[in-house]
Design goal:
single chain, about 210 residues, alpha/beta, ten-stranded mixed sheet, 6 helices, globular
């Protein structure tokens, strides 16, 4: 049986956040809300939990996981950030953007794109997610909650419970979410490049 926590989307209950983080620290796989859609995540260093996410989502070894961070200073620990990109990310975070960047040595090799040694990184604008990250004190290794055979992420926590109870360790109900994915921005080659347009606006691109 999965645990199921109803956490207030604007004022997360600290007791429930602490219990959720204990599940993560013990190697659990957790479904949680973000500012774009629901995500499935685990502790950064737990290989078994990452492998479980690959199995649940039927992902191949080339799938890019995303490091979900609480702020820019945490991003700088796990990715190589130059001044220009830092300024750009400062204007876009927190928000529904995923940045593709060169990974630092602090990221386990098994989590990287095998050819380019890159990692996706984001800082969501969601109170439940922010509280989890603050309590956990390190990023979550995450992937959008899209089930095999589906094109869109799951948005209804009750439906998530019906489909995945017993498959994951914890489902956090933070209310209904959107189903639009993040905007993916490639920051590897100088000027930012939009790899996927999603929820995040790209009006700022005209200024670069």
């Amino acid at each position: 049986m999965s645990q199921y926590f109803e956490i207030h989307p604007e004022n997360p209950q600290k007791r429930l956040i602490q219990q959720a983080v204990q599940v993560i620290k013990k190697g659990g796989v957790v479904i949680y809300p973000t500012d774009s859609s629901y995500a499935i995540g685990c502790d950064l260093g737990n290989k078994k939990a990452v492998d479980r996410i690959r199995m649940i989502r039927q992902l191949d070894k080339h799938h890019n996981f995303t490091l979900v961070c609480r702020d820019l200073s945490e991003i700088a620990k796990f990715a190589v950030v130059d001044n220009m990109n830092y300024r750009l990310m400062k204007t876009l975070t927190p928000g529904p953007y995923t940045f593709i960047m060169q990974a630092s040595r602090d990221v386990p090799k098994r989590l990287l794109n095998p050819k380019r040694k890159t990692i996706g990184i984001r800082v969501p604008d969601n109170a439940v997610c922010s509280a989890l990250l603050e309590e956990h004190d390190q990023p979550l290794m995450s992937s959008t909650l899209i089930l095999p055979g589906e094109d869109l992420p799951m948005t209804d926590p009750h439906l998530i419970r019906l489909k995945l109870e017993g498959v994951v360790d914890l489902i956090i109900d933070g209310g209904y979410s959107g189903h639009e994915p993040t905007t993916v921005v490639n920051l590897l080659d100088g000027a930012p490049e939009i790899l996927r347009q999603g929820l995040g606006s790209i009006d700022w691109l005209a200024q670069h």
